[in-house]
Amino acid sequence: LAALSASLAWPNLTFRGELDVDLGGRTVHLFATPGHSRDGVSAYLPAERVLFAADTVVTGIVPAIGDGDSRQLESSLLRIRALPIDLLVAGHGPPLVGQSQVTAWLEWITRYLRDVRTGVRRSLKRGLTPAEIPESLAFERFVGSRLSPDRHGMVRRHRDTVAKIVREFTERGAMDYT
After folding, report:
1. Which residue has the higher pLDDT, 9 or 175?
2. Contacts of 16 (CB under 8 A, 6+ apart)
3. 3-class SS string, the chain
4. Mean pLDDT (whole number) for 143-150
5. Mean pLDDT lowest among 7-16, 81-90, 122-131
6. CB 66 within 8 A of CB 55
7. What is the pTM of this model?
8. Is 156 within 8 Å of 61 (Cβ atoms)?
């Protein structure tokens, strides 16, 4: 493993926020898209209208938050939605082709996160314990028939996302977390 690590070309350029890279006639716009993880980055080719979204956008599955934050993920999704995108290459799942397909999916996952946060907030106000909430916010209510519950452990993935958002609320100790 040490030999492999020594042979890799490590980055010699870092950035904060945004960076445009000229690849000899083709520009790649790199920009921070935190949420799934704190250090999420997406790559956009504006002339081609192509976005490589890494794990900020997943298709065919519910979004996972990892070590990130659902509010940051929603903000990143809104930023991505503002871009003209004809091809979206997700971190997991099939690529999305066509601006209407891209927009529809981004709107759905943004709404999914917002609705889950609202459900968590209401559940906490009703007195449910953090352990009870993931089971009380049913997959069918938030995902419906959009995704098969039998594929890729989807119900478990949904519960994990709900549990992560519950932790966001309880760690902040604030019910006004939106």
Report:
1. 9
2. 32
3. CHHHHHHCCCCCCCCCCEEEEECCCCEEEEEECCCCCCCCEEEEECCCCEEEEEEEEECCCCCCCCCCCHHHHHHHHHHHHCCCCCEEEEEECCCEECHHHHHHHHHHHHHHHHHHHHHHHHHHHCCCCCCCHHHHCCHHHHHCCCCCCCCCCHHHHHHHHHHHHHHHHHHHCCCCCC
4. 93
5. 7-16
6. yes
7. 0.89
8. no
Cα–Cα distance measured from residue 91 to residue 10, given in angstroms and rounded to the nearest whole number: 21
pLDDT of 46-90, one tens digit each?
A: 999 999 999 999 999 999 898 999 999 999 999 999 999 999 999
Q: In what order do the strands lie in the sheet with 50-58?
A: 18-22, 27-32, 41-45, 50-58, 87-92, 96-97
CA dihedral over 132, 136, 148, 164, signed as positive or negative: negative
**Are β-strands 18-22 and 41-45 bridged in parallel, bridged antiparallel, or unpaired?**
unpaired
Q: How far apart are the first and last CA of the chain?
A: 44
Q: How far apart are CA 91 and CA 70, in angstroms?
A: 17
Report helix angle 70-81 to 99-125, nearest 10. 160
Instruction: Identify the pLDDT of residue 88.
Output: 98
